[in-house]
Structures are given as structure tokens and as C-alpha cells.
Amino acid sequence: MPFPWFPSRPARLGSTHTFVPLRALSEGIACFWNPNGERRYCALLEITGKNFALLSETEQEAIFQLYQRFYSTLPFPTQLLVRVTRLDLSAYTRFLAPLSEEPESLAASHTAFLHQHTTNTMLLERRFYLVVSADPFAVETAPWRRNARRKAVALSHEQAWQQVQLRVEQITTGLQQLDLHVHRLENPEIVRLFDAYYGAQRATQQPLTEEALQTALSTQMRLDDVLAPSSIRIEKDALCLDEREWLCVLALRGLPRLVAPGFLQQLIMLDEEMDLVFHQFPLKQEEALRLLRRKQTHYQSSLQSQHLQGRTANPHLHVAAQDIEPLIERIAGGEEQLHEHAIHLLVRAPSREELNRRVQRLLDTAYTVSSHRPHVLHFEQERGFRTCIPGSFHPGSRLPLPSSAVAACFPFFSNLVYRPTPTALLEGITMQQEPVVVDWWDELANANRFLLAPSGSGKSYKCKLDIMRLLMMDQARARRGETNGEQLQIIVIDPEREYQRLCTELGGQWIRFSPGSAHHLNPFDLPRRRHQRAEAAALTKENILANQIQRLHLLLDMMLAHRSPENPDATLSVEEKALLDIALYECYRKVGISSDPETHQRPAPLLRDLSSTLESGDCGEDTTGLARRLKRYVKGSLSGLFTDQTNVSLENPFVVFDVRDLDDELRPIALLMIAHAVWNLSFASTMPRLLIIDELATLYRYRAGARFAEEMFQRARKQYLAITGITQHPRLFQESAILANCATHILFRQDHTTAEEVGQLFKLSSREIQLVRSFRRGEALMLMDGKRMPVRFLASEQEHRLATTNPRELAEQWTNAQHSSTPAPPQGPEHNGVKPQRSTATTSNSEEQVSGLKPFPLTAVEPTNGTSRTQKLH
Q1: What is the pTM of this model?
Q2: Where is the composition biased (Polar residues) (predicted)?
Q3: Domains in the chain, please, with CATH?
Q4: Residue 194: which of 3, 348, 20 has the closest Cα?
């Protein structure tokens, strides 16, 4: 589509509009006008950075070689902007506003903690933009010939459009080889980038509304009318925008003879707000050789002149003469390309005093990393500011550099993952003070997670923080009416009773699963059909029942296979599986259940029905004694879990299955039954669910359990189910498919016995292995979305109180509760949701408390005769 046409108008003397060359936008391409009549069409690309410090030396060297090759093949100029700005967490906390207004809620504590943390510590975001330009052109038609002028502009526009598209494709391909993600900015993103450039404080305090943005993108007014600051005060060494933001432009006009690859990392990772702007102008080979030969002649003549005068040769000239000869050979041979390079720094501050402090700190840091101190552009601040504008290609003085030196200026040092959405949550803070905020379901390939750590590293602490924050975000969405009745449900399999206190405080449902418990799950239960499921008609009638029987085979394999120390991985024989298959179908037939989904609403058979069917011989002679082996689960000491129909109603948003009282033999079976029940729930509804399996290695004691776990991780995404697996045993998962089906891996501190093994499993570099070994409690390496980030998991005071497992802190909390005379908060709807509360009522089993989260009532379930009875707690 063509650009909107604007007749030229003379710029008023001193008008701030002259600082805004952006005139029009069309489908992600910006048109810039310069005062000399030149027009330039550009596309802006945002590039995602890498955590360069964690790469091995071999990987770093490979990246620099690819980066050098990338710039050696670019025949056109580029502008690279590194923006280091203060991160405003209001884009994240505003989603918690419906809950944070309650002063004692977890949301209020979480929001207050983030506000305090950002006050004490400057949180920064680093973004990288590459400006790709077509060759500039100037319209030479006489101004009074408007029709001819418009035709010339349209023709030049089409040519520039095609040229920009080709160059964007070339750059995208080259950067993807460096494993850098490239995103092309659309029109609204370009406008917001320029709005922030002309006033970071203005863009934060008075952001462009959607209405103003649409007006700016329409043909109703010019972009410079929207973006230009109200005033710009120019001083000899600074600028002041809108009388509230101070700027200073510095130029780096020299580099040392030898630089280490990535030497700018220390400058870019400095915790100061700034813009670092690079201009690259590649020179043709003939032009580069002519320039270098002229330099070579100058060096040689200077040395010869000093020799004839009897003076000692200048050592700098001698070294320069030696360096330039091999450089000429490499450029003549096509191994290198010469660039004219310009580096500018734009420093921002809210006051003049703060600006002076930041400028001095940047001067010192730049001198440390490059041995050259940048120059403050005295009496040239206006020109420097125009040079740093995105899309400006007139930097003034330039520094000739070979492509190898350009590659050493590799700037993409960042791992920013900040994508606030109504369902995103704060994961933690990186070592570079960058918050990690991500939506598990929408932003990642899948919502599955794998946590690996020895005991005491903080993995359950991290999971509890995730639970609280996910419930907070979900409750906030419910308050805004965005859930459509499908709220999040979190189910935890707890082997050490670590989640009971959190469950009680949040009003969740706690279920003690043991042979002596009154709670039952029938493994024969069939999943219910989803309502309004479009693909249900495509399913064959045999699918649901056949899949159910296949999963029962896995459970029965764990229960009945002959295992011994000599053969710990034994499974049922082919004859045993064939007999069980016939018997399982017969059990369902006897209760009136067939492959017809309409019959799946009937009560499912029980394990004792399978035992009776095997004993009857209706399905064939039981020559291997399956019925005899099944007796201990039907009438023996292990029968408590299998004797009755399911009497647990999993309708609470937060459910904890406590399996601590199960012995080592029953625990894997119980985990499989619970996971199977959760799978049936996910199949039967569109409610998003999170299943947390603490100590996933329990299922891996049996081959059947490992198969079921891998199948769940592979298929969970399609059922809107997220699975978090926690383990201490990396060796069990070396050949597992679970790791490949988890979009997020979190590696906590490892000792010397497991660090190398973990490094091989996750392909960590030597630096990453060393980092993992040095982590403190609450720190971990997150592998997510192609990024590797050392992260600290921070919590507010209330979050920490509910998540901690430190015995001293728990004892102190118990002592404070005993000495406190403050009565417990009243039970009622206002104390549901994610606000901490203490439940004062118990069921017949003192530990089996079940209460509700909004919108569910605060209730307790007393299992009786295989059904559930709900009683309100007073």
C-alpha cells in the first residue's frame, strides 16, 4: 500500500518537529525525511539476546566467527541500537489490581514486595534493534510539478520497498544462524519505540493511548505532531527534553589494538539507563584497499622521515605499519571487509546532577573495557542526539574497522523474558536484574516443567510460589470476568506432606491417600466426554474404552509382575496380558459399559470384580495365578485403596494428595492412580490444570510407570494440562522422552557427584556446570524458550511464610501463633480465594481438611459409603 502523501511545509526555526524525521508508516516500513530533501525507507527488527557469559569458549568463538561472516556479507549500511531502560513492573502488577486492593491478601503482599524491590534495586530491560535501510533517494522534480513529483515518489517507493524486503530476509537468515530470534516491528511498535526515545519518562507516565496511537497511524495528522517533545533545551554538554529529562551524548572514537571478543559486555550490562548506538558502513573492496594503501604510505613515509632526521622511530607508527600489511592481504583475498564504524552513547537521567553522575560512571566503565575514554560532544549535543535517532545514518566522524573487530563488538548480551499477560506470572529475577515473567500456556511450546535438585535446594519452595501466583492471577481474571467459568485447577502429589500447611492456608482440598484412609480412587473410572467438543464426533467409539484398558494394563503390570533382585524390570508375560485384556472387557460388560460413550456414565467396575472374573474362569483358565496375586489388593493388607468407588470430588481449585503414609511398594501404584484420575479429569473438561508430581522418579521404579509418565508429558498439551515433574535423580532420565516434552527445565544447585552428569544430560557448558555447582538456596539455572538464565526466586513476606520448609522458621511461626491472642479471621466468602486463612474446623480425621477457594464454598468432605457429603465449616 502506498504511503500517505503530505505536502512539504517549511520547518519553523527552533521547532522540535525538526528532531522527528519519521513521517509515515506502512506495513512495518518507515519513511524518514531529512532536511536536505533525502528520503529513506527503513524496517526495524528487534533481536533477542543471549546469555553470552554462560557459553563455553568454543561456543563463543563459533558465534564470533559467524558474526564476522554475517557482517562481511552485508553490502549495505545498518544501524544497531542497544536500549537499556528502567523496567516498569506496572504492566505485570496491573493484572493483580482486583485482588491487591485487599490489604491483607497475598496479591497485596506480592505487589507491595515488587514495588519495594524496584525502589531498592533498579530493574532493567535490554532490547536490541537493527535498522535496515534501502538506498536513500531525493526527488529532483520541480516542486510546482506536483503530479510528476508524486509519480517519482511512488516509483522510488516501490523500488525501496522491494529492496528493504530483500535486505530484511538476508539479515534474518544471517542472525538465525547465530541462534538469535528476530522479530520485525509492526507500525504500533515503531510508534511506541519512537515515543519512548523522545521521552522515556513521558512514555512511562503519559503513555500513548490506543486512540492516540490509531490517530497517529492514520492520515489525519503527521507523526511528528504526535511524537515531538514540547520543548528541547540545548546546552553545551547536555539536552533537556520537556524540562524533565536530561540527556548527554558521548562518542567512542577509538578502540585498543587488541580486544577480547565480547569486550562490550561489561558496558552493556552496567545498571544504568542508556542507549548504545552503532553505525556500520561497509566499504567496497577497491575503496577499502585505496584507503589502506594510503594509510600504509603515510606510515612508511613518517617512519622514513624520522629515520632520515636521526630521530627514534615512533613505536606506535612501527606497530601500525606492521599491522596494516596483513590486513591489506586479508581484504584483498576477501577474508575480511572494511567498515566505517561509529559508536555513540546516549545517557538519560531525571536531573542534571544524576546525569553528571551517570556520565562519569559510563566514562570510567568505557575506559575500563576499551582503554579509550568516550568524548562528551561539547557544543555538538544536538547533532549527537540526531545521530542516535533510529533511522538516522549521518553519524559524523567514523572509525575504520575490519569485520573481525566489528565482530568483537558483539552486543547481544541479554536474556530478557518479560511478557506480562493476564495469565503470566513472575518466575524470578536474573543476575542482571531482569525480571522473568512468562505465560506458561500461551508463550511456550508447552506448559510442562522439569525441576532437578537435591534435597534442600528450594525446589518445593519454587513450586509453592508458582502455586500461589498462578492462583492469584486466576482469581484476578475471575474478578474481571475473563475466565468464562473455566478457572485454573492445581493438583499436587505430595510425598513428604510439605504442602499441607499451604493447602490449609489457601483453603484447598487436602486428601490423605493411604490404605487406612477413607478416600478412594477407582482406577476403572472412565473419562467423561467434554461438552461442546468439536472433535468428539471424529473419535471412534472404541477409543475411550480401549485407551482406558491400555492404561489399566500399565497399572496391573506394576501390581502383578514377578520381580526379583535378578530381574527388577520384569513385566507380565504375553499370555498374562492376553488374559487380563479379555477379563477387563468382561468386567466392563457385566456392569453395562461398552464402547458406546452413552454407557460410560454408569458406575465403573472395581478391582474385586476383576479378581472374581479371573477366578470364575469365564475368560479362560488362570494358569499363571493372576487372581492369587491380585488377592492382596482386594482382600489383603493393601486393599484399602481399591475396595470402593471413587468418593473424592476434585472440584476445588487447589487439591493436594498426601501419599506420605504409603510404603515404597504402594507409592508408585498410588502415583499412577492419581495421575490417571487427573488425566481423566483433563479429558472430560476444558479447564486448565497443573499437575505437580513431587519426586517423579517414583514412577520410574517400574517400566510401566515410566511409560505412563512419558505418555502424559507427550499428550498433556492437547488436554490443556501442564505437568511439573520434580526429581533428585538425573540418571533415570538420560533416555527418557520427558525432557524433550518439557519446555522449561529448572536446575538447582548440584554437588560434585551429579554436576557433570547433569551437564551431559542438558548439554551445559563448563561455565554453566560451574555455576550450577555454586548456586545458593533459592537460585537455579532456567532453560526456557531457548534461553539459559541464572535466576533468583524472590518472595514477599507472606509468600515466604507459606512456602518455607525451614524447621527453625516453622517453629518460630508456631510459637508466635501460640502466643498470639488475635482471634482467627472469620470464615466466609471474603476470606476465600488466595487470601491466607487458618481453617479452624476438622473432619473425623484430624489431618483431612477440605475447604474451598473462590468461587467454591468453604467446605469439608466426609466420605461415607462411597459417596461425598459436603458440610459447611462454621
Answers
A1: 0.84
A2: 837-849, 862-874
A3: 20-87+123-283+337-408 (no CATH), 293-333 (no CATH), 522-645 (1.10.8.730)
A4: 20
